Amino acid sequence: MSQTVQFQLGRCRPWIGIALLLVFVAVILAACSPIGGPAATLAPGQTATPTPLATLPPAGIALHPAIPADPFSLFAFVFTPIFQALFISLVAVQQVTGSMVIAIIVVTLLVRILLIPLYRKQIVSQKRMQLLAPELKEIQRRFKGDRGKVQEATQAFYKERGVNPAQGCLPLILQFMLLIPMYSVFSSGLQNYNPNGMLRVFGIQLINLTCPSAPQIVAGHVTPCINSTVFGVLDLSQPWVLFTIGIGISILALASSLLQLFQSRMTLPRRDPNTVDDQNTKIQRQSMLFLPFISIFYGGFLPAGLFIYWIVSTLFSLGQQYLIIGWGGMFPLLGWDPPFARAHKPRFPVAIPTVDPAKRAANSVLTQTDERAAKAATTIRPRERGGRQGRRGRRR
């Protein structure tokens, strides 16, 4: 991660912290609830055992829009419209195609298409910050030791160039905020025995599923109304764990982590072998190697459908970034620097913001800085210095 991207994330840090907190609360609330395993089927002649309502797991209570009565229900109430939009779209596509995997892919693409303008602003903002990095570093050098002056000059510089670093915050926030209802769609909607209540909007039943009138519980698990099992073995509403080594390892989580790594490398500027990164930049580049792999730890308890959503969304981001910033810092990769990456030009390149003369003249901070630098340049006499040093050397 470059210094400019790091600064942009710093500007977004308070909002990202709030979004992460909401995601964390949603996951914890879901983790504290009894969650059934894969859908069980009734054997011939076997009947479901009726269970008292008080002992039913969440999947055995029919879904309905939340009513704000306490902090937790208020939290659910706020996300109910987003949940319904995603859930209704997912069920509608699944009813037409007959495949839950196709439904997840289609819904993910629809969401990303709607958010193209916002994500484009984020990518362009990051690229502009990278292009302006040398000038920002020069401002920091000129006012070294005066933190207030650095901030004042930096803000004046952004205003002069018409750049707003906060433009990249909203897509990052939406990315985290969408995880909450998406997680609920897979963990609650697809596991519930009767989700028809969430398929009703303003009293109109948009989709009417044929669900049992009472929950059927077999071996302690509630039989869901929607069949989210694909290939006969993979239940998208449940975690898909291949093996366990202290934590559950999922192939989908591994694939998601690798794609996030590629996406992160593409956001970096191309590395110049003739320049040496400072210590801060080295640390940031190294952190990009392991931060994407944090999602591997989620594979043991997050639904498999959520990882399919994340994989498709990341692939879409890779395509969007390729059109705007090209390969970025993807190469060299393990010493491999292909010619097609070196010669590639983005389809929609980002130009460095130019200086507006009118804004420059009205910018007292940067104008004073330029005058000070010009005056300092006129007082330096390199030949005379060299001559005196030469004479001293001869005297010795």
Map the helices and strands.
Blueprint: H1 3-31, H2 71-97, H3 100-114, H4 116-131, H5 133-142, H6 147-161, H7 169-177, H8 179-189, E1 200-201, E2 204-205, E3 217-218, E4 221-222, E5 229-230, E6 234-235, E7 243-244, E8 248-249, H9 251-267, H10 279-290, H11 304-325, H12 339-342, H13 357-362, H14 364-378, H15 382-395
Antiparallel strand pairs: 1-2, 3-4, 5-6, 7-8
Helix pairs in contact: 1-7, 1-8, 2-3, 2-8, 3-11, 4-11, 5-6, 8-11, 9-11
**Strand residue percentage:** under 5%
Gap from first CA to last CA? 50 Å
Radius of gyration: 28 Å
The chain-level mean pLDDT equals 79
- Low-confidence runs of at least 5 consecutive residues: 1-10, 13-17, 24-54
What's the arrangement of strands in the largest beta sheet?
1-2
Using the alpha-carbon principal axes, give the shape. elongated
Strand count, sense and barrel status of the largest sheet are: 2 strands, antiparallel
Count the helices. How many? 15
Helix content: 55-70%
Tally of discrete structural domains: 2
Structural class: mainly alpha
The count of strands amounts to 8
What series of H and E elements makes up the topology? HHHHHHHHEEEEEEEEHHHHHHH
Can you walk through the features of this model?
With 396 residues, the chain is mostly helical. It folds into two domains: 3-37 and 55-342, no CATH class; 357-390. 56% of the residues lie in helices and 4% in strands. It contains 15 helices and eight strands. It has a two-stranded antiparallel ribbon with strand order 1-2. Helix 2 (71-97) packs across helix 3 (100-114) and helix 4 (116-131) crosses helix 11 (304-325). The longest helix has 29 residues, at 3-31.
